[in-house]
Amino acid sequence: MKCKDIQEVMPDLASGLVEVTPEIGSHMAGCGACATKMREFQQTMALLDEWKAPEPSPYFDVRLQARLREEMAKPQAGRLGWFRRPVLAAALTVLMGVGVGLFYAKGGGMYNSQDSEVATMDSPVQSAEPGTAVGDLQALEKNHDLYSDFDLLDDLEVQHNVVANP
Amino acid sequence: MAGGEGYTDAEVMLRVKAGDQSAFDYLVQKYRRPLVGFMYRMARNAAVAEDLAQEVFLRVYRSRHTYEASAKFTTWLYRIATNLAVNHARDTRHERAEVTVSLDEPDEETGTTPDLADGTITAEEALVRREKMLAIRSKVEALPERQKMAVVMHKYQQMDYKQISEVLKLSESATKSLLFRAYETLREQLKEFV
Q1: Which CATH class is domain B118-194?
Q2: Using CB atoms and an 8 Å cut-off, which of residues 27-46 of chain A contact chain B?
């Protein structure tokens, strides 16, 4: 038996978990280093024994029972619970894929390069439908002078009787 | 089934799986003390240890439907416990303050104060004892995570190499080597107290 073999079982030997076999005993008798290490390990083990853990408190069981009751009150996912979530995610992914595919198939993609090139070459500013946000902004830009004159009208004193002479 | 006497823990757990609540109560009663002790040495706080031990039991209960008696029950139980303890240590590693020794204040981890009133120990002896405790705790705490878990399971849970190796998913020889290195470190660092 070699020192390495003794080292492997030394924690168990020092803790008293295994008995010293005649083979181990004869090695220890002839190997001062292993005998010394064994003695020091035994001292360390005895020291570690002094670290006691507290007993569970009297409320341990009460609290555990309360947590268990909460657990039991939760709705059960059922036997196919583990299966449903991935299936739902896969279904949503497929639906999104189909949606995106249809969007591009109809030529409605944001980056439809052919259309945008034509638009840029033929008319730098496309007129938008009136009533839409873009249309309103374009109308405001075109009629900037007119609308700025309205500010002057706002500054005038309000005449309540519109038919009377000022 | 009124309890689990005469059955292996794995068999009792199969009864839990079948819906026997008294079988679960039996396992709680059997393992509450070792688990609180294990968690206390991993988390170093009695209240946290109880919370974590309860969480282990809750996870056992939640997993009852999927339990297979292929592995030893204690291996499964301590694997849940070590995972929880490691997660807790990672979540709270920045919260740990430097531990100081004082006889005036109760130990924040156990809630106890040195009993000097009965005159069996002097204040000096109590202080020395407490310093020794702090040294043991801090040196075990300072071990690398797997060494610490192996020491706690071996020294305080009396688990053998095979069981520890199964919980830590290591070979038996790697576990022996891990434990030898851990105890070597503790022997070296605690020699002033022996």
Answers
A1: mainly alpha
A2: 40-41, 43-46
